[in-house]
Design a protein that fits this description.
Length: about 650
């Protein structure tokens, strides 16, 4: 990985000059990032910093014309790109500016921070991809999330030798009065010659009496193999399948549950999404306008089932993937087993693993004395309703979303319930947090979901983190009364990974938070008991004993402790040899890109789909475009420099 951080010479900085108030790219600092394996990974990078007006030594004009600012900058940019003059291009950026690319110019997920890295990337990739036909969209806007922080934001379109792409540009003022690029994002939207089969390219001929038999034939794959098998029929698997279908890539989804949606349907009754409906739409078929802002689990389960049928996805339910093995020709042999015990072996070009965190296998800690405990031990995935535990004492191990939901359900049914908190939890209310996080992109009336996805993804992750630190403090201030109440009763709350709140914690940990919809007040009021003053030492016959000698009686212990690692889930299906080459799943690379999901996994033509509804909606297109490009022979070399 050292090559990623090679300097390209002081001639770049001297050619560009310096900008008042902006640290030179030559003065790099050491930053320690958390690695997937838990150890430090010290690398030479620029320290991410928000482009505040004070840092830039700049101010805003009262009569600012955002479209004019964007047009003037973009004209210079387009001319420099046409001339393939990378010195001129990076001269239009802040020295610590960012270029994020998803497939369009790299066939990878990459983020380049600082003009030296941007120039190296452009020197390598601009000519081979032949970036051209750059067109600025109308609608440039001045965004000013805080008085000291402002940028002009605008979307644009472009083409390369293989594809059609979109981008997002953010410009900031400088002390000289010149506007410079703070962030630029490019992403692949379509492969030339291989458009999606929808809209004007849908089937126009009537189908008289043949549709049902055609669908059955398509779904059965009798006497033929699909090009792609997707293992897992949750939102990740369905999104991958529907994107591939629109690109005319034959795909079969294997789902072990009896019905699509059972991943949600069979969880606890009180389960409900805590992110808003505008954030959660699925590709091509948004939720109807009457849909509730926060979706109950059973409702989303039924929607997934309906979605698979309406989008005519080929799904085999009650079917498990028993093994995935490589063949001598580079394809995959996938053996599946149906509910009746019969098996079938497919030979496919690609395998998409849409297994969720850990393949849905519960993470069950073990403690001394557990075998002698006379009560019941279950995982949160086995909990259905507090009605099953009326009259019992329940202890929940864990203090994030599932733990709070289950505790609230128990309290509402009169169950004596205690939350055992092992580490601090990020808390925000949906009332105060959701509008501050999603209001500018995913909210009522904010515009097309496609544009929202572009804008949301365009901000490099480490810059999103810096901005999120401020937003997290704003939310905490709005939630002050609630947080003060939690503090008084001893609840341990933090502000998430790097103090950046919800989204960054989701991207790095996949958890560690609770979006409050009422359980916190029950803790404050003592209706949900709290235990967090000592580490759990062992089980007794009648409950739990802690290191300080205290004990809790418990008839039922519920582990709200998440799931096993994705690596274990892959290993169970693919075996030791194949899974040994798979990259870590989740958390971030040194550049702030998600590890493993939606992109090169380390093993040719094996892919992993993971994420919430919004992530899966957007990045399923990236996954499908990579597969389609490989199938059609237009996939280029992944940029790894």
């Amino acid at each position: 990985m050292a090559a990623i951080f090679d300097r390209i010479g002081e001639n770049v900085s001297s050619a560009l000059g310096s900008q008042k108030g902006v640290p030179s790219a030559a003065t790099q600092q050491q930053t320690t990032l958390d690695s997937q394996k838990g150890g430090p990974n010290v690398i030479d990078v620029l320290e991410p910093a928000l482009p505040t007006l004070d840092r830039l030594g700049a101010s805003l004009q009262a009569d600012l014309d955002a479209q004019k600012v964007a047009s003037e900058w973009f004209a210079k940019f387009a001319d420099a790109v046409t001339a393939k003059n990378t010195i001129r291009i990076v001269g239009l950026f802040l020295e610590d500016g960012w270029w994020r690319d998803h497939l369009a110019l790299t066939w990878e997920f990459r983020t380049f921070h600082g003009v030296e890295k941007i120039k190296k990337f452009l020197d390598d990739q601009l000519a081979p991809f032949d970036l051209s036909n750059l067109k600025l969209r109308e609608g440039a806007v001045l965004k000013q999330p805080y008085p000291d922080l402002a940028w002009v934001q605008v979307l644009f379109d472009f083409q390369t030798n293989v594809g059609i792409g979109s981008g997002v540009l953010r410009l900031v003022p400088t002390a000289s009065g010149e506007w410079k690029a703070f962030t630029l994002y490019t992403t692949l939207e379509e492969l030339k010659g291989f458009p999606e089969r929808n809209g004007p390219r849908r089937e126009f001929l009537p189908n008289h009496g043949k549709w049902l038999s055609q669908r059955e034939e398509e779904r059965s794959f009798a006497g033929r193999d699909p090009a792609v098998i997707v293992i897992g029929g949750g939102q990740a698997g369905l999104d991958a399948a529907v994107r591939l279908k629109m690109l005319d890539v034959p795909t079969l989804v294997i789902e072990k549950q009896n019905r699509i949606g059972d991943q949600w349907r069979l969880r606890y009754e009180a389960l409900c999404l805590h992110d808003p409906v505008w954030y959660d739409h699925m590709p091509y078929m948004p939720f109807p306008p009457s849909w509730p802002v926060f979706t109950p689990a059973q409702k989303i389960a039924n929607w997934l089932e309906y979605y698979a049928e309406a989008m005519e996805l080929n799904v085999w339910t009650s079917t498990s993937a028993e093994s995935v093995r490589t063949q001598s020709d580079g394809r995959y042999e996938v053996m599946v087993k149906k509910a009746d015990g019969t098996t079938r072996t497919f030979h496919v070009d690609h395998v998409v693993l849409a297994l969720g965190f850990g393949g849905g296998v519960p993470n069950m800690p073990t403690y001394a004395g557990q075998e002698g405990y006379q009560g019941e031990i279950i995982h949160s995935t086995q909990f259905k309703t507090a009605r099953d535990h009326v009259g019992k004492k329940v202890v929940i191990v864990g203090a994030c979303t599932s733990a709070h939901d289950i505790a609230a359900d128990c309290e509402e049914h009169g169950v004596d319930v205690t939350l055992y908190q092992r580490s601090d939890t990020y808390i925000m209310t949906t009332k105060e947090g959701a509008p501050r996080i999603f209001g500018d992109t995913f909210w009522e009336g904010t515009g097309p979901i496609e544009d929202a996805d572009l804008v949301n993804t365009s901000l490099p992750t480490f810059m999103m983190r810096e901005l999120a630190k401020r937003i997290t403090q704003d939310i905490a201030q709005a939630d002050r009364a609630l947080l003060d109440g939690l503090k008084k009763v001893g609840f341990k709350y933090g502000f998430g990974s790097h103090d950046a709140g919800l989204l960054y914690s989701a991207m790095t940990r996949g958890g560690g938070y609770y979006l409050d919809v009422g359980a916190c007040q029950k803790i404050i009021d003592g209706k949900i008991k709290l235990k967090n003053d000592s580490l759990l030492e062992r089980f007794t016959k009648t409950g739990l004993r802690f290191e300080d000698g205290s004990e809790l009686d418990a008839d039922v212990v519920i582990y709200a402790t998440g799931f096993e690692s994705a690596a274990k889930a892959i290993n169970r299906i693919a075996g030791d040899e194949l899974s040994a080459g798979v990259h870590p799943i989740w958390n971030l690379t040194e550049e702030g890109e998600q590890q493993g999901s939606w992109r090169w996994l380390g093993v040719p033509n094996m892919w992993f789909m993971l994420g919430n509804l919004a992530m899966c909606r957007y990045h399923s297109k990236h996954l499908a475009l990579q597969i389609k490009a490989i199938q059609e022979g237009v996939y280029g070399k992944r940029y790894e420099a």
